[in-house]
Amino acid sequence: MTHSSLAHNGETIRALRKLHHRTVTDLAGAVGITPQSMSNIELEHKTASATTLNKIAGELGVGLGAICRTRIATEPSPAMADA
């Protein structure tokens, strides 16, 4: 059995932000986070909540799927290993 988790794609967020001529400060303010947090999200130093990712996607005019990817773990979770 595999385990999946949603992970954001900071490079895509940054590319879309630049495509829309938005600054880190502008987008962060519109989303309700600090510019430092936005930068950390883009650099993937910080994981954003689903709510924040939805807000970022909305501000950039795209769906959540455009800025997220599904990470699939190849190892079973500990709970499943004992099953």
UniProtKB/TrEMBL annotation:
Cross-referenced SUPFAM superfamilies: lambda repressor-like DNA-binding domains
Pfam families membership: HTH_3 (PF01381)
Domain HTH cro/C1-type, residue spans: 13-67
Classification via CDD domains: HTH_XRE
Annotated GO MF terms: DNA binding
InterPro entries named in the record: Cro/C1-type_HTH, Lambda_DNA-bd_dom_sf
SMART domains per UniProt: HTH_XRE
Alphabetical list of PROSITE patterns matching this protein: HTH_CROC1
Protein name: HTH cro/C1-type domain-containing protein
Native source organism of the sequence: Planobispora takensis
